[in-house]
Design a protein that fits this description.
- By secondary structure, the protein is mostly helical.
- The chain has two domains: 95 residues, Peptide Methionine Sulfoxide Reductase, Chain A, CATH 3.30.1060.10; 32 residues, no CATH class.
- Helices cover 38% and strands 9% of the residues.
- The protein has a two-stranded antiparallel sheet. A two-stranded parallel ribbon has the order 3-4.
- α2 packs across α3.
- The longest helix is centred in the C-terminal third of the chain and has 18 residues.
- It is globular, with a radius of gyration of 15 Å.
- The termini are far apart.
- 7% of the residues are buried.
- The mean pLDDT is 92.
Length: 135
């Protein structure tokens, strides 16, 4: 589907980031802690001012081991939230990369309001909380 189709809220797709990692270099649990720290996993079908099912909080796993780890982390961190974690946990299916103009969007458009008001603070928070992961 195209970006416009997904934004039409009828495809059932979510805007996501595909994370490919080497578990000998970084554990899934660390990636999950970054994921949960940088967004509100209690919001249903929204993130901040972005509203719609394409903005739902979700994680797609590759195998049962990942599913188990994801559910364990959710159970561990749930008590730190005032509302239930709404993150959907589903098996990975087809992934459609975004159109080229969305690639490296923040790097290409740092002065866009969304980038300066939403993305930049998240990057600052990530560096503060997980600076040891940056090269």
């Amino acid at each position: 589907p195209t970006y416009e189709q997904v934004c039409g809220k009828r495809t059932g797709h979510a805007e996501v980031v595909k994370v490919v990692f080497d578990p000998s270099l970084i554990e899934l649990t660390k990636i999950l802690h970054v994921f949960f720290a940088l967004h509100d996993p209690t919001q249903v079908n929204r993130q901040g001012n972005d509203v719609g099912p394409q903005y739902r909080t979700c994680i797609f796993y590759s195998d049962e081991s990942q599913k188990t780890t994801i559910n364990q982390v959710i159970s561990q961190i749930q008590p730190t939230y005032g509302s239930p974690i709404a993150t959907e946990v589903e098996p990975a299916k087809a992934f459609w990369p975004a159109e080229d103009y969305h690639h490296d969007y923040f790097e290409r458009n740092p002065n866009q309001p969304y980038c300066s008001l939403v993305v930049a603070p998240k990057i600052s928070k990530a560096v503060k909380l997980f600076g040891d992961l940056y090269e």
